[in-house]
Structures are given as structure tokens and as C-alpha cells.
């Protein structure tokens, strides 16, 4: 993210239209774009058995993660609205890599997110199965 914010853009718009009526996007499309970024907030729930006070830590951690994610995504949305014209958004899906100060940092961030999600899913599944069996959630 720092590499993107510090980078330069060849897509800088001449004017900024924050609330334009020229094209509208449905809520389904916005949801599809941002939902994958929000699924990691509950990752700590699967590790609740390791926490000293899970009743306090899980809500605090989840709400803190949502708050930090909200600030980052709103900041990125405003940054893109101010620094990338609409034609660049429509035609070039790799514009973040092109405008980043260090392209490899963007690629590393993407791979880091992919691998951490995959490994988190693998590690969480065994913990969830363990807690289900201890608490006898599924009974014969």
C-alpha cells in the first residue's frame, strides 16, 4: 500500500468527479469487490482457545480489524478517485502495479494475502474441528 501511495500515475485525471451520474455501479458489484477483503476479520475466532479472555479479546480484535480495514479501503478509494481517471480504471486492470513506486511490493502483497488466507484456512479448520468435538456440538 505504501508503494502505491508513494508511486506516480500516468492516469491522473484532469478533473475529479467524486459523485458522478455518468455510470452507476450496483451494490452487488461493490460487494463482490470488497467482500474478499473482509473475510479475514474473523480469523481470530478460530484461535479463541489460545486467548486468556476470549469474551473480551474476540469482539475487540474483530471490531479493531474492521475499523483498520475500513480506514485503509476508504483511503485507497479516495486516493484512486483523485489519482486515476475513469478510462484507466476501465481499460487497465494492472494500473496499481504500474503506478506503484516499487512494483514488486504490490506483487508480494498480493501473494502474501493469498498465501496467508490459504494457510489460515488450513490451520483454522483443524482447530474448529477440535473444538466441535470437545464441546460435542455434533452428537451421534
Task: Lay out the secondary structure.
Layout: H1 2-6, H2 27-38, H3 54-83, H4 86-91, H5 95-99, H6 103-134
Main location: membrane
Protein name: Amino acid permease/ SLC12A domain-containing protein
Transmembrane segments: 29-48, 60-82, 102-123
Please sum up the structure shown.
The protein is mainly alpha-helical and 140 residues long. Helices cover 64% and strands 0% of the residues.
How many individual β-strands? 0
Number of domains: 1
The global form is elongated
Quickly count the helices.
Answer: 6
Distance between the termini: 49 Å
Q: What is the alpha-carbon Rg in Å?
A: 20 Å
> Averaging pLDDT over every residue, what do you get?
76
Biggest sheet layout = none
- Element string (H = helix, E = strand): HHHHHH
Q: Which structural class matches the secondary elements? A: mainly alpha
β-strand percent reads: under 5%
Low-confidence stretches: none
Helix fraction by DSSP (H/I, runs of at least 4): 55-70%
Question: Could you explain the architecture of this structure?
Answer:
With about 140 residues, the protein is mostly helical. The protein is built from six helices and no strands. The chain has one domain.
